[in-house]
Write a structure and sequence with these properties.
The structure holds 2 protein chains of 2 kinds. By secondary structure, chain A is mostly beta strands. In chain A, 0% of the residues lie in helices and 42% in strands. Chain B is mainly beta. The chains are: A mainly beta, B mainly beta. Chains A and B meet through β6, β9 and β10 of A and β5, β9 and β10 of B.
């Protein structure tokens, strides 16, 4: 069965430090992975999709099929990056269904 | 702005008293989803509609029902809420079709069963 694992519940860094939010997945086939972000008191919103290979707000994520990972990275964290981050992938049993990880809270301190 | 709107934002209901949560969208998306998210856990899919086709997850309790009277609206009905149903309920939409662009979420309804 498909599964998304985010091993860290909380990641705490100082402003300007590099950030890496880990995501590992189990999936048979070629997955399309997503990162969603939820800022305080706001709705979940799409941060980036692996298939579009874009950089949003300085964040990037590379799919590593060998390690089955899709870690989210940013070279220099900003205080406004503090939020909850969720990794997600589609359920192979249904094209339009997403399975989410439990999320990682990123806290960026001044 | 086109968006997904959930009402109410907060709902308190008594144990066993039926409750309905509402979701509306102006995106004209084909697919609407309901997720349950308990504290510190991943959002868990309850069911979704692809147009008028209802798709229930195998482990969704019978206590949870849904209605989609038209493209814009989708409702989550909990017939006899238990204390364990206290959670955030998230509505999401997607376009459908062969390319999956991901979801647009509503702000959620925080349900407390007392």
């Amino acid at each position: 069965a498909q599964r998304v694992t985010q091993p860290e519940k909380l990641l705490s860094v100082f402003k300007g430090a590099p950030v890496e939010l880990k995501c590992n997945y189990s999936y048979s086939g070629s997955p399309e992975l997503f990162w969603y972000v939820q800022y305080s008191r706001q709705r979940l919103q799409l941060l980036l999709r692996h298939i579009s290979r874009e950089s949003i707000k300085g964040f990037t994520a590379d799919l590593n099929k060998g390690e089955t990972s899709f870690h989210l990275k940013k070279p220099f964290a900003q205080e406004e990056d503090s939020a909850m981050y969720y990794c997600a992938l589609p359920d192979s049993g249904g094209y339009n269904k997403l399975i989410f990880g439990a999320g990682t809270r990123l806290a960026v301190h001044p | 702005d086109a968006m997904v709107i959930q009402n109410p934002r907060y709902q308190v209901t008594q144990f066993g008293k039926p409750v309905t949560l509402s979701c509306s969208q102006t995106l004209n998306h084909n697919v609407m989803y309901w997720y349950q998210q308990k504290s510190s856990q991943a959002p868990k899919l309850l069911f979704h509609y692809y147009d008028k086709d209802f798709n229930n997850e195998a482990d969704t309790p019978d206590n949870f029902q849904s209605r989609r009277p038209n493209t814009s609206f989708c409702f989550l009905d909990i017939r006899s809420p238990g204390l364990g149903d206290t959670a955030m309920y998230l509505c999401a939409t997607s376009r459908g079709g062969t390319v999956f662009y991901g979801y647009t979420f509503g702000s959620g309804t925080r349900l407390t069963v007392v």
